[in-house]
């Protein structure tokens, strides 16, 4: 890999990091830390397979409510069920098992969540990053087309201006 495995996105911009991880067919986790938020992008064979965030706005339930696939009341109900399961069941499983969303809507919500997390990172002006060659064992593996993602990010940034 020709970029450092850790550094600052002010010095090594996020597009360069993502491109290098794709070219090198990296498998592992890229963690980017901002002031109070940590976002991770998971790669397998250079392809983005998932992303996560500590930002409340990036939570799956919030994404599904924002996409009108889930009501606020049903989200609250599912979160209560999640607490009762003591974290043994992921929110997505609870939503589908209880008929609150369809599997297709869950899948669409997960892809939207991943894209939104990555898009938000392109708006960061500073942050420390680190790439580690490991993946969490229970990760959901989505396939995100990198070229389509970058094109979408560019369109969204232009709309924001």
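Sequence proposed for the structure above (161 residues):
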């Amino acid at each position: 890999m020709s970029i450092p495995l850790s550094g600052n996105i002010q010095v090594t911009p996020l597009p360069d990091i993502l491109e290098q991880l794709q070219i090198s067919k990296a498998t592992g986790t890229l963690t980017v830390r901002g002031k109070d938020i940590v976002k991770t992008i998971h790669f397998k064979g250079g392809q983005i397979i998932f992303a996560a965030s500590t930002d409340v706005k990036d939570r799956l339930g919030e994404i599904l409510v924002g996409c009108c696939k889930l009501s606020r009341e049903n989200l609250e109900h599912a979160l209560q069920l999640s607490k009762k399961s003591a974290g043994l069941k992921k929110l997505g499983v609870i939503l589908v098992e209880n008929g609150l969303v369809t599997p297709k809507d869950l899948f669409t919500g997960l892809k939207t969540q991943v894209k939104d997390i990555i898009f938000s990172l392109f708006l960061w002006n500073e942050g420390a990053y680190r790439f580690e060659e490991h993946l969490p064992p229970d990760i959901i593996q989505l396939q995100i087309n990198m070229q389509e993602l970058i094109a979408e990010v560019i369109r969204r940034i232009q709309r924001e201006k």
